[in-house]
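Chain particulars:
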Amino acid sequence: MKKVEAIIKPFKLDDVRESLAELGITGMTVSEVKGFGRQKGHTELYRGAEYMVDFLPKVKIELVIQDDQVEQAIEVIVNTARTGKIGDGKIFVTDVERVIRIRTGEENEEAV
């Protein structure tokens, strides 16, 4: 199993969720996060004063999926979340050693 973490622009979340659901991937965790990479933030005006906004709002989607679903999931996320502009986000893929469903005690594939 793999854990796929995708950090994307917030307005792309619904499109990505729907595209993943079409693949049969329905379980996910979504968090509102802030950060920056090459985008470096921007300046805003508030009550006449200019200030720097270093951390930009993003959404982090976390999926734990079977190994054979990973490439399709990545392709769907990339194609759906891409705007072609700086700040489109990143995808991280890591191995998952063990999963336990707390309610039933099921483990690994059965728990996902």
Remarks:
- The chain is about 20% helix and 35% strand.
- The chain has a mean pLDDT of 89.
